[in-house]
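Pipeline run #58 for the internal structure catalog. This entry was flagged by the ingest filter as a single-chain record with no existing model, so it goes straight to prediction. Upstream metadata was stripped on purpose; only the residue string is passed forward. Reviewer on rotation: M.T. Logging verbosity set to normal.
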Amino acid sequence: MTNSESLLEFEDIHVEVEGKEVVKGVSLTIRPGEIHAIMGKNGSGKSSLSNALAGHPAYRITSGTVTLGGQNLAEMPPDERSRAGLFLAFQYPVAIPGVSVANFLRTALQAHRGKDADMTDFRKLLKTEMKALGVDEVFATRYLNDGFSGGEKKRIEILQMSILRPKMAILDETDSGLDIDALKTVAEGINRFHNDQTGILLVTHYQRLLNYIKPNYVHVMMDGQLVKSGGPELALKLEDLGYEWVETEMAQKAGV
């Protein structure tokens, strides 16, 4: 795949939740090596878009197309989307009591590789990635996210991403609930994962994450639509002026 080809592409997608349309015709192309950020207020549709792309059953894509490396994602259940190379880091990672971090990650990796895959490298891979992310080895035996702090949960998600090595990672408000030290560590893990063959879609409220992960493109989402796009400077302007100036600009264009 060359950089001129799309990695993740969605065109005019509409998403409904419990009969209400929350994403209203969104199109975006992400190519290998690119980092895109979607910013917006609460309720703008950012997380709904992320969940719909990953195949969450409550978020129904009613029209439009979604492809990953040319494959039609809309026709795949969530597990097949994951094996095709799509990864979603949740805003609120769930706890799974009774399942250790190591067993969860081993099972996930084996599901990606196939049931007959050689897993002899797993322990070494886990230790290497845990060390790189500053995750104490004791977490390997703890139950997944059970009693973890917000920062610990986010580090474990980035650990999962580092082990699965997806083609395309969607990170839904990964900066939520992180102090500055945890934010830096998580950002370092994301930057270490990213290369010229992978794509990243960052979903965030704030510019602060983008101090550590430099996007190629920034998009503003309002009322279920992408209403403005630009480079990293757009995020800085949003930090200075808030979202009101975008709303004012849209109203002026509409002649309101």
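catalog note: The chain has eight helices and twelve strands.
catalog note: The helical segments are 46-54, 78-84, 101-113, 122-132, 150-164, 180-193, 232-241, 244-254.
status: ready for reviewer M.T.
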